[in-house]
Amino acid sequence: xxxxxxxxxxxxxxxxxxxxxxxxxxxxxxxxxxxxxxxxxxxxxxxxxxxxxxxxxxxxxxxxxxx
Length: 67
Fold this sequence. Notes:
Largest sheet: 2 strands, antiparallel
Strand content: 15-25%
Helix content: 25-40%
Order of helices and strands: HHEEH
Number of helices: 3
């Protein structure tokens, strides 16, 4: 399937990174994928999570970063 179609179909307006050498993952201390990182309005990482997280957890962490 074409990821561009998925992106359009799911309102893809968030920041997306491409990290083929793994530099960002290393900087964040990620030990594998999936890996989630939430930043606040200034770009500071306020939460990270290795592995799968529930939608509720991700939603609450993003909401907390917006306060």
